[in-house]
Amino acid sequence: MEEATDISYYIGKDGLEALRALDVPLEEGDVVSINLASIDEQEPSEITQFLADTKSGKNYWIIVARAYAQLGKLEDAVKIIKSALDSKHFGNEDTKTLEFFLIWLHFKYASMGIDKSNHLVEAGTSIADLASKVQNDAQTTAVNSASNLLAQAVMALYQGHNDEASTIFEKILKRDQNNTFALLGKAQALLNKSKNYASALKLYQQVLILNPATKPDPRLGIGLCCWFLNDEKMAVQAWERALELDPSNLKARIFLNLAHFHNAFNSSWSDEDFVTNYVTCLNELSKIHKANVHDSTVLLVLASYYYSKANFETVEKLLKKVVKDITGDDTLTKLTTHSKASKYDSTVLSECGTWLARVKFSEGNFIQASKYFQEAIKLNDLNIVAKLGLGQSQYNRGSVEEATLTFESILRSNANCLEAIYSLGVIYAKQSSKKKKELAVQNLERYIRLSNSRGLSSSKNDNDFSLNKEPIALNAYLTLSKLYENTDLTQALAYLNKAVQARKQVGKDVPLEVYNNIGVFQFTRQNFKGALENFQMAVDQLDGAEFLSPDGDVLVDLPSDLKVSLTFNFARTKELSDEQEALKTYESLLLECPHYFSAKLRILFLSCISETGLTPKEIQSEIEELLKLNASDLEVRSFYGWFAKNFGKKLGMKPDADTAFQKETLVEYDKHDCYALLSLANIYCVLARDLKGSSVEEKKRTYYVRATELYTKVLTVDRKNVYAAQGLAIVYIENKESTKGLDILRKIRDSLNDISVYLNLGHVLCDVKQYGKAIENYELALTRFTDGKDVQILTFLGRAWTLRAINEQSLTFFKTALDYTKQAFNLTKGSKSALLFNISYIQFQIADFITKLPVQKRQPQDISDAITGLNEAIETLIQLSSDEEKHPPYPKDELRGRANLGSSTLLNRLTNALDETKENIAEVEHRLETAKQLREQEKVAQLQKEQERINAMKEKEAELAKQRAALQEQAQQWAEEARMNVDANEEEENDDKLFEQELEGGDGKKKNKSGKSKSKGKAKKGKSGRKVVSDSEEEEEEEAEFSNDDEPKSNGKRQRVSDDEDGDGNDVVSNGSKRKKTSHLSNEFIKDSDEELEDDDLFGDEKESEEQGEEHVEEQKEEKGDDAE
User: Fold this and answer.
1) CA angle, 460 as apex, 457 and 465 as ends, to 5°?
2) What is the dihedral of CA 692, 698, 700, 705, to 10 degrees?
3) How far apart are CA 825 and CA 561, in angstroms?
4) What does the H/E/C string look like for 227-266?
5) The pLDDT value given to residue 120
6) Quick one: pLDDT at residue 553?
7) Using CA atoms, how far apart are residues 889 and 170, in angstroms rounded to an integer?
8) What does DSSP assign to residue 455?
9) At how many degrees (to 10) do helices 250-266 and 232-245 cross?
10) Stretches in the chain below the pLDDT threshold 50
11) What pTM value is reported for the model?
């Protein structure tokens, strides 16, 4: 049978018919039926008159009034109940019941939000009057008494007295534990007081079990509890079921509509999907609003919609209506004056205050917005939106500290509030404190991390995974990039790339400023190709772009201004790959903007460093003209100072022209100009370095002190100026404080990616004799910043390897130094005198080093190469000391003297070393040959000895094999004898039987003796029977023993063991035979008389004989085992 979807499933069809029609009996016995479903079509006065005329009972009046109330005709319902109270035929109890029903109608008004305050006042008055009547009237029925308590409890709920309401409900439940209304009220009080949704859910489920048709429907409460317990599907199912059972259930429709709004905002897969869902929800909301224009929830949802449409006037009208329904006054200026409002009403008023504050915030009235937000927070301290709005209002009106405190307080109670985390991150980022900036990074990174995972799904394969990400504000990425650009350029660039990716994912254009910043970072990281691509994308976005001011005005000049900066950046990057293209770009910029001197300066600079373009004289005239037009511009003045320093001497300028110009800049224009300060400091360093001799030490120290002061001043102006720090390090190094200078240079290396840093590090490390690390820095400078053909760096490497070779006494290092120096010589295009001398110097060092080596470590080839190199070095020195050389590296006399020393002394030493080495090698080879021969002889002797040992072993093994064969044969022989002995024993047993039969024929005395003897004989035979399977050798030993009557038995056994060990018994043992041993007596002993058997020691103690025999067997086994081994 198919399940019914209406209430008839629970109350049956008869019950459903009873709800639809009311049968009123008449005195004549007739019945008048009233159609309750269409009762609103009838005049209430007619029905009232009919019920009064028929003097119908209170139940008929209540049923009719309830029918009107369910159809929303509350006024008609009130009129009917009042008419019933005016009737005189009701008793006291019936009157109480009607008055209680009137109270419930007042509650109905309040629940629908219609003049809520006045109806609650009237309900409270009626409850007080009825309470006194019930208490004073002992005849009050249980129903009216329960109704009185329920009314008091509900009034307590409306007033926010949840503890009082809970106490009353518990009192009712003690009387009737199945009172569904009390259970519903208890659940409501529990939710109001503690938000204990799990416990409340159990109460609602208990009501549903007791009476599934209860009104109000417990499924509404079940749905609410499930929703807040994160079981949204179950909540929707509960509300849908409630709506199936009662299609007019307005609360169920409201809850479902809110759930659909939630899904539209959080589970829409696309913009089109969202629009469809949102419009559907709005249409349903409009229908609900028409059904009840006073519901505060519906009005607040409508207010949010009109707020999104910027229709602030309508928003205020809706909020006024909500406030008036709750308080009876539509004044919005002071919401917190209504102190008697319940907790629910306070929450609704708090929402009204929040929306009013948002309206004022959007209008720019931040002071009034702050006031409304504060009132909303006072009404509901859990209103997180009001707290966020308050913080934003405080920030926008300049109270940054107050805003910070507000957002921090939000995080203390809501640690994962994304808006508060983001707002704090932005506020901290704008402060100068280093600690605050670190907090800004932590908050913004946490904001991004939490936004990417809202906890709804953890699996990337989940269909809802893409819905679990909260949209991230673009400003979060940009702010993080800005915070990182001074400490971690890679991380700053990564956040800009994430910003680009985020904008593309939502289908929006990336701001050209982001592309420009990425290009600048790529340029700084020397990724010039990537920089060009980003600058080009930024330029492309200018085509057809329109920029608006905050007021909505079109900024006409902004696109052209942006294009100038972007084009300059593009050309600046292009210089490194296509200088001519860059020059054309700069020239086109000057045509569009003739006064853009930055482009002009780049053209002049490129002309200075290239062989094409303007001559130095033309450049001088251009820069002087530019200086006249922009005399106060520090960029122009810096370039002029650089030009005067590098080209002043060629152009005939005064020797101190650059110094005077930089001083003029500091005195006349800007005393904090970093470039001028650095230039002067560098000049002082050069002057100090050029001073030689002890007489000028004081002056030299003064120059260094001035340079230090200037570098320090630059660092006070710009504490991150690495050029000033590097100059300071050089001053320390020049003054023999290498450790301090080295520490500074290492710090600079971490922040400045420049070749000068690595070269200076190499110089300092050479001075402190850390040649390996110095070589590493030189090689880094050579490979990272050059094409590997820089003559100067190759010369530095040759010098460092030479010093390392001298320090570590390594010929390999000398050869490496010579290779680098020769590379520098081959690549140089100018004068080669200094490099020639360097090569000859290293060759002299190699020659001298080899002569000092122990003869065992020399190699003839190394010596031959050294002799060749020394001859080349002598020729080089002679060439450098000749008259043809105009700029020798050292005085010619010293060069000649060194050449003579090499040819007269060092060359002879090398020749002698070569002879000594060859003799030593020959001697060593002779010794090795002799040792080899001796070793061979020893090896042969060992082989012969080993062969003799093997032969001896083979002979021994052959002898042992023969012995084993003999033993095997003997063992077989003994086995055969043992089998023969077994046959002999059988014959003896037959003889014994005959002997016993003869004895039985004798006298009594002999019988007794023979009986005794027989028993002994049998015992002995039994024992000998157990030893039948013995070796023949043991039999012979026993016969020998028994034939000697003079010796005791025990001595005989010990002697036998000894004889076996000395005699041939060893062969038997070595055979490994382990057959069980037995002994038997010869026939002659058996023929002796009984007395002789009794007197013979052999038959004395049978037990002792057995033990001794077993001892003998074990000894024999051990002997055999030893021999077998």
Assistant:
1) 45
2) 170
3) 51
4) HHCCCHHHHHHHHHHHHHHCCCCHHHHHHHHHHHHHHHHH
5) 84
6) 66
7) 111
8) S
9) 150
10) 1-4, 8-13, 15-16, 455-465, 1002-1110, 1112-1113, 1117-1125
11) 0.65
Q: Say how far apart CA 780 and CA 793 lie, in whole Å.
A: 10
Give the per-residue pLDDT at 59: 83
Give the span between the Cα atoms of 913 and 863, in whole angstroms: 8
Per-residue pLDDT, 863? 81
Q: Report how far residue 833's alpha carbon sits from residue 886's, in angstroms, rounded to the nearest whole number.
A: 10
- DSSP letter at 649 equals T
Instruction: Region of 762 please: left (phi>0), alpha (psi -120 to 50) or beta.
Output: alpha
Sign of CA dihedral 882, 887, 890, 891: positive
Ranges of beta strands (E only) in 677-769 are: none
pLDDT given at position 1032: 42
d(CA 233, CA 213): 22
Q: Which amino acid does the sequence have at 547?
A: F
Question: Within a 10 A sphere around the Cβ of 104, how many other Cβ atoms?
Answer: 19
* Cα–Cα distance, 1005 to 140 (Å, whole number): 133
Q: Residues, the chain, total?
A: 1125
Residues forming a β-bridge with 34: 22
899, 877 Cβ separation under 8 angstroms: yes
| Cα 52 → chain centroid | 80
State the residue range of the domain holding 1105. 1001-1124
Domain contains 652: no
| pLDDT score of 391 | 96
Tokens of 1077: 């041993």
Q: Show the beta-strand stretches assigned E in 603-686.
A: none
- For residue 509, tell me if it sits in a domain: no
Residue 776 domain-assigned (yes or no): no
Instruction: Judge contact between 148 and 136, C-beta under 8 A.
Output: no
CA 603 to CA 623: how far, in whole Å? 11
Q: What is the dihedral of CA 644, 650, 651, 653, to 10 degrees?
A: 60
Residues 350-363 as b or e (16 or more Cβ within 10 Å = b)? bbbbbbbbbbbbee
Query: What are 799's two structure tokens?
Result: 């010098």
- φ and ψ at 554, to 5 degrees? -80, 125
Cα 209 from Cα 137, distance rounded (Å): 35
Cα 917 to Cα 417, 850, 864, 905: the distances in Å are 85, 11, 11, 18
Instruction: For residue 835, give every residue at least 6 positions away whose Cβ sits within 8 Å of its Cβ, in sequence order, or none.
Output: 795, 821, 824, 825, 828
Buried b (16+ CB within 10 A) or exposed e, 944-955: eeeeeeeeeeee
Q: Which amino acid type is present at position 1034? A: E
pLDDT of the residue at 468: 56
CB 1080 within 8 A of CB 1021: no
Torsions phi, psi for 237 (to 5 deg): -60, -40
State both tokens at 1012. 């005794």
Cβ atoms within 10 Å of 604's Cβ, excluding its own: 22
Instruction: Report the C-alpha gap between 465 and 482 in whole angstroms.
Output: 30
Residue whose tokens read 């070095």: 873
Contact 978, 1030 (CB under 8 A): yes
| Angle in degrees, CA 213, 216, 220, rounded to 5 | 95
* Rounded distance between C-alpha atoms, residue 427 and residue 431, angstroms: 7
C-alpha distances in angstroms, 350 versus 344, 799, 892, 913?
A: 10, 81, 100, 104
Are 1027 and 1109 a contacting pair, CB within 8 Å? yes
Nearest to 884 by CA among 920, 836, 922: 836
In the block, which residue shows the tokens 């002009």? 600
Instruction: Determine whether 957 is exposed, middle or buried from the number of CB atoms within 10 Å of its CB (0-12, 13-18, 19+).
Output: exposed
List beta partners, residue 22. 34
Q: Give the integer Cα–Cα distance in Å for 786 and 758.
A: 12
In a domain, 28, yes or no: no
pLDDT given at position 1018: 39
The CA-CA-CA angle for residues 809, 810, 816, to 5°, reads 135
Number of domains the chain is built from: 1
